[in-house]
Amino acid sequence: MLLALTKTANFMAEPKANELMEKIVSLCKRRGFIFQSSEIYGGINGFWDYGPLGAELKRNVKDLWWTSMTRFREDVVGLEATIIMHPQIWKASGHVETFADMMSECPLTKKRVRTDQVDPQTGIAYFYTGAGSADGATSTETFSVLIAVGKPPESARKSAAQFYEMRGVKSPELQGERSEKIENTMLYHPESGVRLTEPRPFNLMFKTFVGPVESEENVAYLRPETAQAIFAQFKNIHETSRQKVPFGIAQVGKAFRNEVTPRNYTFRSREFEQMELEFFIKPDEAVEAIHGTVATVPSTGHPGEPQPNWGWQAWHQYWVEERVAFYEGIGLSRQTLGFHVQTPEELAHYARATVDILYKFPFSKKNEQGEMAGEELEGVAARSDFDLSQHERFSGKQMGVFDEELRAAWGKLDEEKKKDLWQRYHDARLKYLTKTGLNAEKAAKKAKEDADGLAKGQYIPHVIEPSAGVDRLILALLSNAYTEATETDDKGKTETRVILKFHPRVAPYKIGVMPLLKNKPDLVKKALEIRDTLRQHMNVFYDDGGSIGRRYARQDEAGTPFCVTVDFETFEGIKDGANAGEKDTVTIRHRDDGRQERIKVSELLGWLLPKVR
User: Fold this and answer.
1) CB count, 10 Å around CB of 247?
2) Given 65, 168, 306, 469, which residue has the most CB atoms within 10 angstroms?
3) Which domain holds residue 458?
């Protein structure tokens, strides 16, 4: 058995939030997880590149999501759609009209901030009614700036002078100065201290042009989400995949949002990846017509295996719990997660319910109870039939489905039940159509047509949407895995080192393979043979540089869960213990506790595979 480099390891208390984030960012740069995009040119805010370890970590996460969503299920198929699509898609989805943040601008620096992201500030506000100069130029624009309590008023006057000079007043003489102490205000720019302009909507979509001419006719957009391609291709997929409702369509891909204030490292970026599922279900009226009733399930906990009589509430609860189970399966325990059930005021007008699954990041703010509230990892929304209805309305193409089971069941219902279901479906469709701006007469006519169609086995599917951010999940995994340990060697020297305790399923490298000494050909040859065997099944890192303890430490910092070392006992036989004399064994070293055990080379692959998949 190899001796570990250290004799003791005491895990330290978690660093403070800001310190912890700084350490994570530093580690990501140092070890090749994440780099600032275009760094040699000063970088570009809101864009990030994933280095060798980060690319592997990200690939593992996406592959696990894809496998769990599509290959382990009979009721979900995949799609990979283009980033640029017909601009009408974004008009139908509402992004062109409503996909905006309320922004305010600093009149002095012209920097913009999201109005709802300005942290409350306290200080002394200085107000000016205008300025004039000796050459007769004047400005009557008012100006206000907030400075820290105790800071001299000269700094406020300097900012005011710059403001009026920008308006053509040379060497301005400030007018109407007064001051006032203000507490917990969100009206001033956090950097310049200058009073912000009134909030205005700022569209978040990146605009581009398709074709050689930059004209309004050729305007297109980089997609701000991956979901709309699924809705636009719904009919093609439904007809070619031989799926029946309920079924889902999954997609992983890039999305782009022109965030004015990207923040918190990779949490809010301008280019990011999403993992989205659109799971199409029957409207509750169709379920009730077929099965007589719509099942009710507890509001908490997993409702179990899907049942034919599930309505939207059961399916929504099911997908919330399925997503939590996925996170637990890659190392994020339920204790690290939080949940926010959106209030009626927060819900989109078409949504029936949305649950945000949160992770407690180091930068997360605390709630009123002093507990870490968490930031959104994923939203699970019950979106009714809004999306397909919108695309049907804008494209003129039918987005409904025919359900033979519903048509047959409807004919067996008594007249009172038919009337009740018809009316409920009619009222839901009328509500949607009215909100689209259709006049009362046309809305009533279309709602009647849709309700009559239900009796013929036709309806527009409703949808449950679990939508997760890949980059946010990577940051959550890094934050969750980051651990510091103090270690003392045989000489009494103490040092602190980092261990990334990734779940083996997501770890960039599953195992490190090492010869004890690189100047011993037999050890090296055997280690290379083991590497070549294992790399056919998993990502392996070979390392023969430096002391074995240092190599272990490097793999701990990269998050590698296991290391295998070829040593002299591999050839000479185990020296003592129950298996003394046994040859062709190697040392397995466990990352999380430093524990070591010996295992036969022939059994190594079978031992590893269940642990890393």
Assistant:
1) 20
2) 469
3) 52-81+225-473
pTM of the entire structure?
A: 0.83
Kindly report, residue by residue over 108-142, the tens digit of the pLDDT: 988 888 888 888 999 999 999 999 998 888 999 99
What tens digit of pLDDT does each residue of 257-278 get?
988 778 899 999 999 999 999 9
Identify whether residues 465 and 331 lie together within a single domain.
Answer: yes
Beta carbons within 10 angstroms of residue 6's beta carbon? 20
Q: Among the residues of 209-363, which ranges form H helices? A: 227-232, 234-241, 284-291, 312-329
464 belongs to a structural domain: yes
Distances (CA, A) of 281 to 209, 382, 468: 36, 10, 20
Q: Which residue has the tokens 């997908």?
A: 319
Between the alpha carbon of residue 331 and those of residues 54, 266, 476, 480, the distances in Å are 17, 20, 10, 8
Q: Tell me: do 393 and 276 sit in the same domain.
A: yes
- Angle of helix 52-66 relative to helix 312-329, nearest 10 degrees, comes to 140
Tell whether 465 and 489 lie within a shared domain: no
| Beta-sheet pairing, 34-36 with 48-50 | antiparallel
Distance (Å, rounded) from C-alpha 207 to C-alpha 99? Answer: 13
Token digits for 47?
Answer: 């864009």
User: Do residues 254 and 396 share a domain?
Assistant: yes
How many beta carbons lie within 10 A of that of residue 575, not counting itself? Answer: 10
- CATH code for the domain in which residue 519 is found: 3.40.50.800
- Run of H or E residues at 465: strand 462-469
Contact 457, 425 (CB under 8 A): no
Cα–Cα distance between 510 and 504 in angstroms, integer? Answer: 6
Query: Which ranges of 436-483 does DSSP label H, i.e. alpha helix?
Result: 440-455, 470-481
